[in-house]
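Dig into what follows:
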Amino acid sequence: MKPLYIALDMETQKEAMDFLDQFEEKRPAVKVGMELFYGNGPAVIQTLKERGHAVFLDLKCHDIPKTVERTMRTLARLEVDLVTLHASGGKTMMAAAKEGLLKGTPSGKEPPKCVAVTALTSTSQRQWKEEQLMEGDLGDGVFHFTDLALQAGLDGVVCSVQEVEGLRKRFGEAVYTVTPGIRMAGSATHDQKRAATPAQARAAGSNAIVVGRGITASNYPVGNYGKIYKEWMGESPWIDK
């Protein structure tokens, strides 16, 4: 399974559910970020799970190890499919996150996958060096953070499509790659500096992609979802297996 997560970057649970109602009985995978979660709390996750959606909870945790461990223990009880934290928090923090997920997961359930955000897809090489004061090439930084994440026991990383092929060569299938910044060819990239098409993500070997405004801001969200999914997976999302 290679999910296409729709980023529900909305303020209210009602807005999110009204949007998803357009898909009728279909249940696309979704990403819940800080805006929707902080405004509505765990109730929005419960509603999405009851409706049958796979949920990627993208809160990008970054704090001292103990705080992150306790936070992940709490998030694990929500039984989401995927969670994030910032790799720049370091290996000890990432290991603590993994420990929290294992402790918090209900008995008999699989813990959520945990992936580390390496460099946001809105980050350029110039920002990497001049604003964040990071040495060397941005891509090298992504590889370094990925190595730390895997050493800490995480499942993989969030990165741009541009880094996936290099990660595959270096780490093989050991790293699960989630790639946001996905746009159809010719579409606006908005604030994304390292964007890519679904076809490019597929060719590079991404495990999951995230699409927001290309679907949610569209006049035909269900149709656009189908086009993106078909380019990503090579088949219609509505084919009965």
Remarks:
- The longest helix spans residues 91-104.
- The first strand starts at residue 4 and ends at 7.
- Residues 4-233 form a domain with the TIM Barrel fold (CATH 3.20.20.70).
- The mean pLDDT is 91.
